[in-house]
């Protein structure tokens, strides 16, 4: 009998060793201690069949084994508690995760895209390090052209420079796409400008280009009017006047009224010069185009009433957190 009892205990220990979950511990309780068919229960009931001489001490052994099995099962059926989980108090307030927000210039670029998307425009990026060819020459500005003076820039070598405007993308795009075309080129530009409230040596532009068989100056004006009203609101005061760009003919500029600073120029535009179309492989007798280049930095100033453009690039969180 003693032997049998020891064997039961050994078997139990072996099984407990391989236990995988608290639920399985419960099934062991039934297997060994179950009221009817529990292995130990059955053995206990056999005691009374033993001759009295052999019963000595058996009762105590059974009791000990039962206690050991019970204690082990109780312990194993508790979910595992590691020191770590004991330390975790789920009622303490969590640490605040700092969530960033979009920079106002990014937001404005996205807003502009959205308005033009509505009019059927897509958009694409272009190189900021550009050849003299695409930045100037293909846009009717050969070396020495006076219009280059207002767009001085940083040269990597004699023919490579940091683009002065997103207009560099016009001929690049025309070369690879067939008319009709409606596209925006947002991106960063560079000029040798002294920083002041409305100028910085690095700034953003969004170029727009449309080429179609029947495009006209009236379409351009209508489109820009639609844009300004959608972006700033119906009552915004704008003014348009004639200008000169070598790559548009005729050319215009648009200014928007700023409460504190008066009129601020937000874009240059015009009908794409036939030479530019030709440089891009488009026949100017079949197609006409218009284009514009606007400054999202200026749009941010006007929209949010900011006086100084430099604050947009200082990365001061006291300013940026307001957006
Ligand atoms: N590239 C001009 C600038 O940087 C802006 C501009 C004027 C872009 C006329 C155009 C345009 O596409 O047609 O000042």
Secondary structural class:
alpha+beta
Bound molecules: 3,4-dihydroxyphenylalanine
Give the helices and strands as they follow along the chain. Answer: HHHHHHEEHEEHEEHEEEHEHH
In quaternary terms, these chains amount to: single chain
Written overview of the protein:
The protein is an alpha+beta fold. 38% of the residues lie in helices and 21% in strands. The protein is built from twelve helices and ten strands. The strands form two sheets. The chain has a seven-stranded mixed beta sheet with strand order 1-5-6-10-9-8-7, with helices on both faces. Strands 2-4-3 form a three-stranded antiparallel beta sheet. A hairpin with a 3-residue loop joins strand 8 and strand 9 (262-272). The mean pLDDT is 91. 3,4-dihydroxyphenylalanine (DAH) binds next to strand 8, strand 9 and strand 10.
Features:
single chain; 323 residues; alpha+beta; seven-stranded mixed sheet; 38% helix; 21% strand
Give a quick precis of the structure.
By secondary structure, the chain is of the alpha+beta class. The protein has helices at 2-17, 22-33, 39-46, 58-76, 83-87, 104-118, 132-135, 168-176, 217-232, 274-279, 296-304, 317-320, and strands at 122-123, 129-131, 155-157, 160-162, 181-190, 202-212, 238-245, 248-258, 262-272, 288-294. Strands 1-5-6-10-9-8-7 form a seven-stranded mixed beta sheet, sandwiched between helices.
